[in-house]
Amino acid sequence: MGVRHAREYRDILQELTDAISNIEDCYLFFEMDVEAWNELQGEEKHEVLEALADDVFYGLGEHPEIEVGSGQVIYNSKLHHIVVKTNDQVYHTVRLI
Q: Is 36 contained in some domain?
């Protein structure tokens, strides 16, 4: 099925990475503990977050709602966007077209 998009994937991935980085415990997606997460340096954290965003993007094609730590990432195929929620509130909307 997949997530349909018309924007450049690189731009979507960057925006999704930035949005997911605001989920305080996003590292739980990879089953990391807070100590392992805090040991990572800035660029290493960014690489993990980008891999997380990439995994989530492709996962949304199969499961339109994915939990990332205490947050949620939701794909709305009718409105062509991805919503990132933290604390049950919409934090950011990533437009796909």
A: yes
